[in-house]
Predict the 3D structure of the following.
Amino acid sequence: MHLDEMLDYNKKFVERKEYEPYRTDSIPNKRMVVFTCMESRLVELLPRALNIHNGDVKMLKNAGAIIRKPFDSIMKSILVAIYELKAEEVVVIGHHDCGMSHVDTEKLTETMKEKGVADKTLETINHSGIDLHEEFHGFETVEDSVRQSVSIIRNHQLLPETIKVHGLVIDPATGKVDVVTRQD
Ligand SMILES: [Zn+2]
């Protein structure tokens, strides 16, 4: 398992005090929240492409950088970052070639069944008012999706007026960023 490799590595990391260059406090130096996709190609590329270092920003991620409801966990985290951790700017960063741009929810449900999720479980979920298509369907174009997430943040009842909210799209091959929407 990769976990064992990680745990072995971690012991050495701590013993060698390799954490020292990363020491900082929990207030983001750039007073910024970055909300992006969980895409593995962006793990190192995104911070490097935008010159983000340890301690600089609050980094939030989910599948697709999608916010669709005003009180989902990402939105709550953004509010905590603003009210508790002094963030003043929020940047939503979608990316080209995102897995969430073509989620076939019927196929997804089939895969769930193949992996052992019972029909009855899916029925129960459906009956409790959760629409799996609605929850997992993703988006058509990344720009529209970023605009939608930005709009939910900008229009949130609990967002202070002084907070700037921007939307970007990054290319996971080159790190090139394009601005979709910005507030000055
Ligand atoms: Zn993605």
